[in-house]
TrEMBL record:
It holds the Pfam family BKACE. GO terms for molecular function: 3-keto-5-aminohexanoate cleavage activity; metal ion binding. Its cofactor is Zn(2+). The keyword Zinc applies. The keyword Cell membrane does not apply. This is Uncharacterized conserved protein, DUF849 family. Keywords: Metal-binding, Transferase, Zinc. InterPro entries: Aldolase_TIM, BKACE.
Length: 295
């Protein structure tokens, strides 16, 4: 019997210029909800979403937009696990001329503030970016105390953390926190390659090295930005991991034209089958992650 593989649909992401580069990107709550419903029909068991300002197309962390978007998805009755991003509101921008004080563009909030939408809406999964990294001149801040607090708050609400590791050091931090029990008895870790955030490159050597450091008993997945995601998905399925695909990770097709979530997810399903797996159902995904069955 083929192994069930969790396919996560990352339908829009938080890249600031993504809506300008690809008109197929879901921006409004209605468009995001429709993209999630489409993803479920195509075989995705998990929907990883961000919200965006419908007027500007820019990424947002507005709780009103989160409530509207999640409300539409739930009202439609779509059987899919929700994975809400909590990567916003962690940026620190420094004014060099003024003595490295916080400058315009800083969104840094405490852990509870970054994750208030996750705590209020209690999806099955919420993300934790497991490490500090540079975004151009900005810094995404994730101190050990921040990570422990987010994990604790998620645990109190019954939300499973998806621990996103963009580099080897992030994975070592995740290992330490997992050993402390911060992520429960069945951690869920995501290897993120070639994202342009100064992390690990999308190479077979990097994937193999990070895969080797995944703690035993951990549910793990891997993805890469752009076309590299095809071989990463094959390797992940073959190695016992899970996969994700969508416009967050690839805005263009091989010809350089704007692609769609449907095209990326259809390709991902084909890749999963070709690598010897099959897309997990939402019920199977819940069981794999150790989450309660859908009520």
């Amino acid at each position: 019997m083929t192994r069930p593989v969790i396919l996560t649909a990352c339908v829009n992401g938080g890249r600031p210029d993504a809506a300008e580069l690809n008109p197929n990107l879901p921006v409004s709550p209605e468009a995001i909800a429709a993209a999630v419903a489409e993803a479920a029909k195509l075989g995705a068991a998990v929907a990883h979403i961000h919200v965006r300002d419908p007027k500007t197309g820019l990424p947002s962390n507005d709780i009103g937009l989160w409530r509207e978007t999640v409300g539409l998805i739930r009202a439609a009755g779509t059987d899919i696990l929700l994975n809400l991003s909590a990567s916003m509101d962690g940026l620190l921008v420094l004014d060099d001329a003024a003595g490295f004080v916080p400058a315009d563009g800083t969104t840094l909030r405490p852990a509870a503030g970054r994750a208030d939408h996750v705590l209020a809406l209690t999806p099955e999964i919420g993300t934790i970016d497991c490490g500090t990294f540079a975004l151009g001149q900005a810094i995404h801040v994730a101190r050990m105390g921040d990570l422990r607090e987010m994990a604790r708050l998620y645990g109190e609400k019954g939300v499973r953390a998806e621990v996103e590791c963009f580099d080897f050091g992030h994975l070592e931090v995740a290992r330490k926190l997992a050993a402390e029990g911060a992520f429960g008895q069945r951690p869920f870790m995501q290897i993120c390659l070639g994202t342009g955030y100064g992390g690990a490159p999308a190479t077979p050597a990097a994937l193999a090295a990070m895969r080797e450091r995944i703690p035993g008993g951990t549910v793990w997945a891997a993805f890469a930005a752009g076309e590299d995601n095809l071989w990463v998905m094959r390797e992940a399925v073959a190695g016992g991991g899970h996969v994700r695909a969508g416009l967050e990770d690839a805005l263009f097709d091989a010809a350089g034209e704007p692609t769609t979530n449907a095209a990326l997810l259809s390709s991902a399903v084909e890749t999963v089958y070709a690598a010897g797996g099959r897309p997990a159902t939402p019920a199977e995904a819940r069981a794999i992650l150790g989450l309660p069955a859908r009520s």
